[in-house]
Write a sequence for this structure.
């Protein structure tokens, strides 16, 4: 895992950088990306990526990530190539290192959705163009940037908000807690015993929260966790690759379901977030996700705007 970059008072160019995890970015850099995303949401079309190509390797399914990256490239005058890992030689054993070197001679950046983080870091090591993590088993950084942009739009501020993630301590939870701590929020993760976020990431999140005036709490009690929450966030109980654990997980996570009863303990203005895809009546009831406090489609739309900010910042 890479070390944390300290916050610099000087505006730093992100050109040529990889995005594997927000642990590698300063608070100031994240704020710059958020500002650019807000600008791009109001000014969607440009030629800033004219002639540029993004290669997108997918080893797992995707709707939002695939379409928002592709549409985002097009809206900025560029082009994206969808590469299903099964159809390229990577799926037949060609190494990540060779794939990285070859693709770098054709495209201006590579996005990868895969299993192990090591595959993303290996790709970044051998690619001479920026590599963007489009989800791995440990992180989902693009999602987290869309999450905090949505929270900023909903609440008008970030610092000091109480944001609660309830459910599996997974890739989405990791990136969300890191980024929220980095931005000075009070972060609570509520999960069953045995489904906690990674210990090392918890340690870094605690450190980041301390540095940025926020806090991090791990709670096994979902009711206690959501008390006065401004934001309640959940994700599926069985992620891609965990399909065979789904039945056991349904039972283990049941008390952590986001429903109207649970939200009664949150702040009156609470907003509900979910990265999608969602399983109604499992991690969230239809009454909540389709109800007045849900902001999940605004959140999904924001994937487009933040990804464009990431692409523009890393490419030019
Ligand atoms: N939230 C998210 O990453 O969705 P997709 O799996 O559809 O890309
Ligand atoms: N945690 C989920 C997120 C999907 C966008 C998964 O990895 O399947």
């Amino acid at each position: 895992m890479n070390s944390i970059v300290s916050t610099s008072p000087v505006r730093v160019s992100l050109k040529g950088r990889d995005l594997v995890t927000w642990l590698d970015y300063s608070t100031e850099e994240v704020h710059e990306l958020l500002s650019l995303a807000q600008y791009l949401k109001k000014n969607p079309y440009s030629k800033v990526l004219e002639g540029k190509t993004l290669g997108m390797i997918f080893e797992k399914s995707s709707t939002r990530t695939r379409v928002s990256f592709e549409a985002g490239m097009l809206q900025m005058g560029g082009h994206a190539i969808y590469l299903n890992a099964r159809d390229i030689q990577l799926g037949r054993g060609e190494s990540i290192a060779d794939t990285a070197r070859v693709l770098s001679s054709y495209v201006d950046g590579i996005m990868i959705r895969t299993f192990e983080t090591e595959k993303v870091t290996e790709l970044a090591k051998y690619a001479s163009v920026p590599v963007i993590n489009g989800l791995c088993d440990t992180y989902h950084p693009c999602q987290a940037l869309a999450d905090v942009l949505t929270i900023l739009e909903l609440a008008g501020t970030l610092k000091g908000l109480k944001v609660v993630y309830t459910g599996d301590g997974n890739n989405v939870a990791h990136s969300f807690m890191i980024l929220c701590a980095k931005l000075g929020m009070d972060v609570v993760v509520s999960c069953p015993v045995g489904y906690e976020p990674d210990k090392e990431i918890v340690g870094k999140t605690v450190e980041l929260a301390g540095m940025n005036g926020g806090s991090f709490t791990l709670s096994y009690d979902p009711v206690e966790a959501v008390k006065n929450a401004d934001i309640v966030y959940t994700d599926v109980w069985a992620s891609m690759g965990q399909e065979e654990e789904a039945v056991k997980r349904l039972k283990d996570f049941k008390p952590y379901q986001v429903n109207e009863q649970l939200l009664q303990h949150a702040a009156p203005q609470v907003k509900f977030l979910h990265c999608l895809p969602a399983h109604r009546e499992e991690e969230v009831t239809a009454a909540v996700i389709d109800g007045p406090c849900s902001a999940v489609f605004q959140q999904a739309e924001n994937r487009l705007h933040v990804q464009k900010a990431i692409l523009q910042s890393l490419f030019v």
Remarks:
- The pocket of norvaline (ligand 2) is lined by residues 135, 170-172, 235-236, 239-240, 275 (CB under 6 Å).
